[in-house]
Amino acid sequence: MTSWTDFTAGAPRISTIFRRRHAATGKLCMLATVRADGSPRISPIEPSVFEDRLWLIGMPDTTKFHDLHRDPRFCLHTATVDTQVGDGDAKLFGSVSDVRDTDLHQRFAQDLFDQSGFDLRGEVFGHFYEAHLTGASAVELVDGHMEVTIWKPGEAERVVRKH
């Protein structure tokens, strides 16, 4: 599995689209997880890049985090309302690990407070999920044609142009 830093180096086009869409929506993405019965669940989430790592952190004791605790696989999709995908969109695939590092948690909480004023300083995080990527894709319109960029770890991005 691939870290955020390795992903951005290995998939510059997809990571640029992801960061652009992530910023444009105020960090809102849609997270797909696997329910206990094996069916998919789609939930909103605001993933964060902190200390060159991608984090899936949010309100504790939610079903999406119960899903990830049981089955760490996920798909993260940038939120869009543009059916023409004029600004592109991106999907990241992977699994999470729960990082139990209270010093890291507090650095994250301080950074969040400094950036947004939202105060989680001193809080104990139930789960603190780092995303490890196993693949990614993005869609963009280029010269009136849809281009799908696909990436897997250890491979270069490849572009499929749809006519």
Descriptive terms for the model:
single chain; 163 residues; globular; Pnp Oxidase, Chain A; alpha+beta; 4 helices
Concise account of the structure shown:
With 163 residues, the chain is of the alpha+beta class. The protein is built from four helices and nine strands.
Describe the structure.
- With 163 residues, the protein is an alpha+beta fold.
- It has one domain (4-162): Electron Transport, Fmn-binding Protein, Chain A (Pnp Oxidase, Chain A, Roll), CATH 2.30.110.
- The chain is 26% helix and 37% strand.
- Strands 1, 2, 3, 4, 5, 6, 7, 8 and 9 form a nine-stranded antiparallel sheet that branches.
- The longest helix has 15 residues, at 102-116.
- The termini are far apart.
- This is Pyridoxamine 5'-phosphate oxidase family protein.
- Keywords: Oxidoreductase.
